[in-house]
Amino acid sequence: MTKIEEFIEETGAFDCVECGKCTSLCPVANINSDFAPRLIVVKAQEGLESEIKRDKDIWSCITCEICNDMCPYEVDFSGFIQRMRVEAVGMGNVPVCSEAGAVQTMQRITGMGQKQNRLAWLTDDLKVSDKGDVYYFTGCAYQLGILFNDKAPELKEIPANVVRIMNAAGIEPVVSNKEVCCGHDQLWSGDEVGFIDLMEQNVEMIKETGAKKVVFSCPEGFRTFNIDYQGFLGDLDFEILHISEFLMNLIDEGKLEFKETDETVTYHDSCRLGRHAGIYDTPRDLLDAMGVEFVEMASSQEKALCCGVNAFTNCNEASRQLQMMRLLEAKQTGAETMLAFCPKCVIHYNCLLSMEKMPIEREKIDIKVKDFSNFVAEHMK
Amino acid sequence: MLQRGYHQQTFHQRADTCNGRVLPRGGEILTAFEPRIVAFCCNWCSYAGADLAGVSRLQYPPSARIIKVMCSGRLEPQFILKAFELGADGVLVAGCHIGDCHYIAGNEKAKVRVEMTKELLDVLGVDSRRLRLEWISAGEGTKFADTMNNFTKELEELGPSPLKEVI
Ligand code: SF4
Ligand code: SF4
Ligand code: SF4
Fold first, then answer.
1. What tens digit of pLDDT does each residue of A335-363 get?
2. Do B6 and A233 touch (CB under 8 A)?
3. Ligand 3 atom 6: the closest Cα is on which residue?
4. Is the pTM here over 0.90, yes or no?
């Protein structure tokens, strides 16, 4: 069996009956009629190497997993795309990267063995430890906040705010300067070898801290550890938790209290947290516990629309359209703010909002888009 | 859970999928340390300044690689990050003096970007003094040569870039 045949089988793409349900629900196919997920599967099944070399469609997919969720035969379409991309890059079929590839380069540099200054955000009032049960994986939010300071400078505050929330509940999490990027963007842009390098460094580093729980504020890191690291390495011997789950536990134990507020918000299910990891309830429970007025958008949870970009590749007209559609929905709820956990969602939506010329009247979509963890920290007593 | 074909790696290996290149990896043998500088010079002022330094036979270290860009405002953070990733010890960005930009305000953009990139480099563990921004006009051949000489000296003090594996 060739490698391609192998993953066609492993991801269940072999079971595709060409019903076309994915194509009819795919948000990209809705905008770009030349794109059809079903066709990608069919072409791969035919084993046409020359197709894989030329096929740009595997980069147009935004790996939102709407198709995975809806496919009656449970084809793991995004898993299939992820592995097709690795093959494609090997054959010279590469993506168009945003910012000329600065994000990917920045992430690769984290793993080059130098002494980073990753905890630059750590101020004296924050309590953290070197060893302990709870490890907080900060991810690249701080770095992205620097790189995109014109679009989402608030991302720089995420790590400090998360530690602040944990401190308020009496937890002094472990954070590490030896942490490297999780490798999410490497894997989804076809650099499997670079991904493995980063993964090994992270797993080794967490082992050294003795942590039993690893908490993520970023949905991508969460998904990457949960699904991809464990896919490569088998079960990891620490628990992997999203911050929303972790905070709900603390709230249930009565360890966190919030200020009263009359703000109204809506919540965007980032694809990595929602469809990829199945976490829909805890963010909503969290808002409820905070006493924040919450309104749901027209499409939410499994059906949530997407920010239109994955792994900082192939940002194009379709991405703009998708961002616009989502912001339209958000604005229609009447909420003042749309919250999201994924720092990249926050960047991409604010990117559209920061455009001077818009494809639509500004009033129809201008809603504040904010990071969820920062929002929680602001509302703590 | 599936266990994908997995082989442990013994050295850092990366590929730049954005341009489809496998990045070279492995140690560099250094005998005498000669800082390698990548200098991005704008077409209208600084490149001409470098040219003037050349025709005036002013001495500056030969280890600099000059890359001409149409405007310092064309410079993206990625160009700088990439230069460091590929082993540069220092990066110089040179453009027209403020107010003299051929494209009105490209150099002001460059200034903002370089400052932001400096902040990022520090977080990544690459000393931000390794990145320099200078305004050098077409007539300032001496300033170009001086900048190169000073920068080289400072980099000699800082030592090789921490992104290089030195054997
Ligand atoms: S929904 Fe599933 S079975 Fe139907 S065409 Fe798409 S991948 Fe194939
Ligand atoms: S993952 Fe999303 S964008 Fe990609 S084919 Fe499926 S529905 Fe379309
Ligand atoms: S939406 Fe904006 S920030 Fe996001 S990839 Fe596209 S251009 Fe970059």
1. 999 999 999 999 999 999 999 988 889 99
2. yes
3. A315
4. yes
Q: How much is the ipTM here?
A: 0.94
Measured CA to CA, the distance from residue A377 to residue A162 in angstroms comes to: 7
Q: Tokens 């890059």 map to which residue?
A: A89
Q: In sequence order, what DSSP letters do the residues of B26-68 get, joined into one string? A: S-B--SS----EEEEEETTTHHHHHHHHHHTT----TTEEEEE
Cα separation values, B166 from A63, B18, B87, B162, Å? 40, 27, 11, 9
Distance CA A171, CA B164 (A): 38
Which residue's CA is the nearest one to ligand 3's atom 1? A348
Rounded Cα distance between B43 and A197, Å, is: 39
Q: Given its phi and psi angles, is residue A18 left (phi above 0), alpha (psi -120 to 50 degrees) or beta?
A: left
Strands of A337-340's sheet, edge to edge? A293-294, A264-267, A337-340, A368-371
Residues on chain A touching B76 (C-beta within 8 angstroms)? 99-100, 102
From chain B, which residues contact A within 8 Å (Cβ)?
A: 1-6, 8-9, 12-20, 23, 76-79, 81-82, 84-85, 116, 119-120, 122-126, 162-163, 165
Residue ranges in chain B assigned as alpha helix (H): 46-55, 77-85, 106-124, 141-158
